[in-house]
Amino acid sequence: MGHDTAEWVFIGVVIAILVYVGVDSWIVQKEVEEVPADAETIKVTGQQWFWSFEHADGTKEISTLHLKKGHAYNFEIYSKDVMHSFNIPDWVVFEDAVPGHVNHAWFAPDQTGEFPIQCREYCGLLHYNMRGSLIVEDTP
Amino acid sequence: MVLELKKPRPVWQIMFSTHHTDVGLLYTITGLAFLFMAGVLAMMIRTHLFFPGQGVLISDSVTFNRIFTVHGLTMLFLFALPVANGVGNYLVPLMVRYKDMAYPKLNAIAFWMNPVGGVLLWLGFSDTSWVSYAPYSVIRAPGPAADMMIFGLKILGISSILSSINFVVTILKCKHPDLPLRKVPLFAWSMMTVSLMTIVAMPSYAAALIMLLTDRLGVSGFFNPSMGGDPIAYLHLFWFTFHPEVYIFLLPSIGMMYEIIPRFSRKPLFSQGSGVFAFVMLGLIGFASWGHHMYSTGMDFTTKVVFMIGTLAAVPASGMHVFNFLATMWGGRIRFAAPMKFAVGGIALFFSAGAGGVLNSAMPLDFISHGTYWVVGHMHLFLTGTIAFGFVGMVYYMFPLITGRMYSEKLANIHFIGMLWGSVQVFYTQHLLGLEGMPRRIYDYPAEYTSWTQLNQIATIGAWILGASFVAFLINLIYYSAKGKEANMDDPFGLGGKYYYPHQAKNPHHIGY
C-alpha cells in the first residue's frame, strides 16, 4: 500500500487545476446568464425542419433573422414537435428547444455580417439541413 | 483454465457449456464480431462525410441516421459490455480462487441474451440515435425499427443486470476465505465496481424504455408533451443510467491495464490501495454527474453548478489510476510486447480524453462544445482510445492463454501503430471540427465551409488508417489462432520466471504479487 509524497503532490495539483476550472466557470457563467434589462425579446420556434422568428413588434421571419448591431436580444425558444437546439455558433448562442418548455438565451451582437444558424440536437430526417442565417445590420 | 481450443471440441459443446471459460470465450468472440460489424458502419459514416454534398456512398439521410444509431448501440452494448464480461468470466473466478462463476447457468443465460438483443437491434436498424431522445423517439421515429430497438435494449439490459449479479456474488461470496477483499486483484475489483454500478443504474433506463414503449403505443404520455408529459423526464432517466454507464464501460478496461502493466513492467504494482480507492470513488461519483449532459436543456444555474462539481470530482480518482500506472512503470524493466503497447497507448489517450472532459464540464465551455463534433471526438477518445485499447491489449494478452499459440508480433505492431495514429488523427480532428461549430449526427454539411471540409477529410483519412489496422487484428485473431507457433505456456511473453500469469496462480497470496 504505497502511498507516498509524489502521489499526494500529483493529486494536489490535479485538484488545484479543477478548483480553478470550477471557480472560473462559476464566475463566467454567472456573468453570461445576467440578461441586460433592455434586451429585446425575440420568439424563436423550432420545428421539423426550420426556424421561425417573431420580433417584439410582431414582425415574423422564417429561416433568416435580421437584428441590429449594438442591441441586446433575449431569445425565447420554443419547439413545436421534437427537441431541437437553437445555435448561432459564432456568438455562442446555444439552448435546446424543448416542446412544452420555454428556454432562454441572450446575446448582443457587436459586429455586422451574416452568421449561420443551425440545429444542434438530432431531430430526424433533415436535421442536417435545419439551417438559417442571422444578419446583423448596422442601423442606429 | 486454458487451452480449451488446443484440444478441439465440437462447437456446440462450447456453445451449450456453462463453464466460465467457455462462456467467457463466447462473450469475447461475440463482442469482437460486433466490433467489426459496427466498425464497418463507422467506416461508412466517415467515408460518406469525406465530401460535402449528398449521395457520397450513402444516398439518403434516413439511412445515414440509421447507420450512426446502430453503430453507437452496437459498440456500446454489443462490443464494450460483452468483451468486459468475457474477460471477467475468464479471470474473475481465478482471481477469487473459485471453480466457476457463482451461478453458471445464469451466466450462460445472460450471455445468450446478447445475440438475441443484437439481432433485434440490427434487424430493426432504428434511426433514433442511440440516446433516442423523446419526443422524437415517441412521435416521429418510424416503427417497427424503434420498437425493435426498445425490445433489444431491454433484453441487453436484463442480460447485463444478470451478469452483474453473478459477478458481485462470485467476488463477495465465493472468494477464497484466505484472500482478503482488499487483496483481490484490481481487475476483479473493477468488475465488482461496475457490477454494483450496473445494478444501481440500469433500472432507471429499464423504466424509461418501458415508458417509451407505452408512449409509442399511445396508451401513456410520460414523455409526450401533447399528452401532458415532459421530454426532460426522459433525459433524466436516461442519463441517470448512462453517465454511470460511462464508467461501467471504462473501468474494466482500466482493470485490464492493472493486469497488464505490472507484469510487463516486471515490477509490483505501485499501490493496490490507491487503485481500490479510485475504483470505489469513481463508482460513487459516477452517479453525481449525469446532469452535465443536460446543461442546455434550460437547467437553472444552481443545478448546473452542482453537476459541474460532481463531474469535476471524478477527475482526481481517474488521475490516481494514471499515476498508479506511471509509478508502476517507473524504473521497471518494461517489455513492450503487444499487450503493453496497447495498455500504454490507452493510458496516453485516456489522459487526453480526460483533459478534454474537464473542459466539457466547465459550464460556459460546454455551451461551445455540447452537441458538436467535439463531443464525438471526446467520447470516442474514451471508447476507442481507452476502452478499445485496453480490451485489445487484453485480447492479445489472453491470446496464448486461450489458444495455446502466439499471435504475430509484427502484425500486432502494425495494428498498434495504425490504431494509435488513426485514433489521434480522427478524434483530435473531430475536437477541432466541434470548435468550428459542426453539429453531431449530420448527414451533410454546406460545401462553402471549407474548414469543415478539410477537417472532415483529415478525420476520414484517420478513420481509414484506424480501420485498416483492424485488418491486421483480424488476421491475428483468425489465422494465428489456428496456425501460429505454439506458445511457451510457462511464460508466453518471456517475462522471466518470477511473474505469474493468471492461469498459473495456485496460491491466493501469489495473485496480487
From TrEMBL, chain A:
Gene3D superfamilies: Cupredoxins - blue copper proteins. Keywords: Copper, Electron transport, Membrane, Metal-binding, Transmembrane, Transmembrane helix, Transport. The chain crosses the membrane at residues 6-23. InterPro entries: CcO_II, CcO_II-like_C, Copper_CuA, Cupredoxin. It comes from the Archaea. GO terms for biological process: ATP synthesis coupled electron transport. It holds the Pfam family COX2. Its main location: membrane. GO terms for cellular component: membrane. One of its GO terms (molecular function) is cytochrome-c oxidase activity. Residues 37-140 form the Cytochrome oxidase subunit II copper A binding domain. It is found in: Membrane. PANTHER family: CYTOCHROME C OXIDASE SUBUNIT 2 (PTHR22888:SF9), CYTOCHROME C OXIDASE, SUBUNIT II (PTHR22888). Belongs to the cytochrome c oxidase subunit 2 family. This is Putative heme-copper oxidase subunit II. It comes from Nitrosotalea devaniterrae. The gene is coxB.
Automatic annotation (TrEMBL), chain B:
Residues 6-513 form the Cytochrome oxidase subunit I profile domain. Signal peptide: none annotated. One of its GO terms (cellular component) is membrane. Keywords: Membrane, Transmembrane, Transmembrane helix. GO terms for molecular function: cytochrome-c oxidase activity; heme binding. The chain crosses the membrane at residues 25-47, 67-94, 106-125, 145-172, 184-213, 233-254, 275-293, 305-330, 342-359, 379-399, 411-428, 458-479. This is Heme-copper oxidase subunit I.
